[in-house]
């Protein structure tokens, strides 16, 4: 069954790279489960991080707290610096995410995101829910410089389900296959997208 493993999420204060090994294209992490009724940010990691070459299978992350952020990366925010949030070459399969802001890769925040594959993923959103990102804060794109030209490409999404989570009292809902909501214009094209 699904159990709560309190205190097991990585809470990053500085930029950290979480990267799969060079000998294998991806490092696979299976069976992660974390749920909470009193924590706002629930996922594998929260804060400033570079996450790449990782595969997540059979993950379950849930927060029933109001305004919670849930995803592999629960939440990142600008701290006034040029911190790079980079999420690329990530595979998520057979997994489920539930929160007010919910996405398989990022619940709430801004990032360079590319080369993402989702298969058999369920997203339960309170107000903002997307296959890849729940709430995408596009106003912080100046963090990424030239790299942002390639920021939103190569999404392969197969068999995802996005569901309104009725336990959240949200008057309006924003749901999407890639992103639930994008604040401001990203001024970049989202390209090479396959949704089946």
Give keywords.
196 residues, mainly beta, 14-stranded parallel sheet, globular, disordered N terminus
Describe the structure.
The chain has no helices and 14 strands. The protein is globular. The chain has strands at 10-19, 27-30, 33-36, 41-57, 60-63, 69-75, 86-103, 106-109, 112-130, 133-137, 152-164, 174-176, 179-183, 191-195. The protein is mainly beta.
Structure summary:
The protein contains no helices and 14 strands. It has 196 residues and is mainly beta.
Topology:
Elements: E1 10-19, E2 27-30, E3 33-36, E4 41-57, E5 60-63, E6 69-75, E7 86-103, E8 106-109, E9 112-130, E10 133-137, E11 152-164, E12 174-176, E13 179-183, E14 191-195
Parallel strand pairs: 1-4, 2-4, 3-5, 4-6, 4-7, 5-7, 6-7, 6-8, 7-9, 8-10, 9-11, 9-12, 10-13, 11-14
